[in-house]
Amino acid sequence: MDLGIKISEEGKNYTIDYENASGWRRSLSRLIDDDVVFSLKDARELLRKEGDVIIYDVYNLWKTIPRIKEISEKTGVNCDITVLNHGVISASDSGELFFTYGHRHEKGYSEIYTLLAGEAFLVSYEEGRQKTTMIHMEEGEEVLISPTSIHRLYCGRKGAVVAGLVPREAGHDYNAVKGKGMPYAVFLKGGKYEYPKNPKFKDVEFELSEAGSGRTLDLFFETPDEVKKLLGK
Ligand SMILES: [Fe+2]
Description:
Elements: E1 6-10, E2 13-17, E3 23-27, H1 28-33, H2 40-50, E4 54-60, H3 61-64, H4 66-75, E5 77-84, E6 88-89, E7 95-97, E8 103-104, E9 111-126, E10 131-138, E11 141-145, E12 150-167, E13 187-189, E14 192-194, E15 205-210, E16 212-213, H5 216-222, H6 224-231
The structure holds fe (ii) ion.
């Protein structure tokens, strides 16, 4: 599909470029201030060593790209891009991989994430069932996020460019994550992934899984009402 953006690779990271880009940025200090990192000590060491590094950028394609804006206005479904940088939250080369803050939707809508470039993990925590699913994503794969999921993205051995489709009304509840983070994290240690449990949570089940291929992002352009229905209550 052609979203009307240009994705460029620079080492392990990606940048995107399009006309009238509009969005916002999250850096390390905010993740420390809100205590959503696995280890505050490691995070503060990185802050001292590297400064307030940029963790991710979110671009609201639905605000400025005419074709997307038109569909979004008609369906109420937003299309955003998250560019998550690669890195570990540590002064060494091992530690918690860079991640997005995480949130739950205020109203019961689903969301679709499609990985456009790089490598990522989607962490989905179902608080009611006390279960965390860690879903590994490769380029072109998508994940349907449940309406009750508290979800966060981690980068992999590379950064990640993720397209999200979610109804505008869904809303973001960041308090679901603030002060505690998620039950499980993704670490890179000696080039290998590890999924340590966050001691702030008790007895949360853990499952590792793989994302699947899908074409919901194409359908957003072809049959947007179907996508709206898929994400609806
Ligand atoms: Fe979401």
